[in-house]
Write a structure and sequence with these properties.
The protein has 179 residues and is α/β, with parallel strands linked by helices. The protein contains eight helices and six strands, in the order H-E-H-E-H-E-E-H-H-H-E-H-E-H. Helix 2 packs across helix 5.
Amino acid sequence: MASYTKAAQQWATFARAWYLLDAKMQPPGKIAAATVLRLEGRHKPIYHALSDCGDHVVIINTRHIAFSGNKWEQKVYSSHTGYPGGFRQVTAAQLHLKDPVAIVKLTIYRMLPKNLQRRTMMQRLHLFPEDVIPEDIQKNLLQEIPQPRVVPKRLDEYTPEEVAAFPKVWTPPKDFRRK
């Protein structure tokens, strides 16, 4: 009887799990860091660099990623066609308008180890620009990866009770006039 439980336990250890990550208002680098960990299998106790034990990762809302500062206009993605004069540069905003999945895909691809397993790991990555997931993928999802950055609430998302209960930093005197 013990061998059956050991076999089931070993199967569960080596089985590929499916993880969900919501990329809404998250920086691409933080998304990639959390994703690469699961794609490589580094979160498993059986991890070895030469073994292919990574899991599937599904990322939704890639259309709504967030860059800090002025990176939408300053960050440049470069490529070369291989022909003379074929050097192409495009800003993050232009690339995001053309393909809302491309920035997250490129960030994850560049963060993976540069070896022959990289393409295999990228096949286990599933990216969606909105929160609509196909039914066959949705039934496989086991766990949600917590968002790397806490998303602040907008002012219109607070209830009137929460706004009233918020502590006031300064209360103006009764004879105070604005200029």
